[in-house]
User: Which sequence fits this backbone?
């Protein structure tokens, strides 16, 4: 899946325009990057956690996402 397809899918699922979905995705990614760089990790219950390891951000999905 490419960026455009992902944005379109988020737009459909959330009832947003493509532009609104793109803005949401960009904002979400920015908050994740800034928070992990500042605090070392961020945990989103029911989704997973983002953690800084060896100067890179890694995502660990909650078990519910992988079932």
Assistant:
């Amino acid at each position: 899946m490419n960026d455009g397809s992902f944005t379109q899918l988020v737009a459909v699922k959330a009832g947003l325009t493509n532009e609104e979905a793109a803005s949401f995705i960009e904002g979400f990614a920015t908050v994740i990057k800034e928070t992990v760089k500042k605090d070392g990790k961020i945990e989103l219950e029911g989704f997973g956690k983002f953690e800084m390891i060896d100067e890179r951000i890694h995502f660990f999905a909650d078990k519910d996402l992988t079932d």
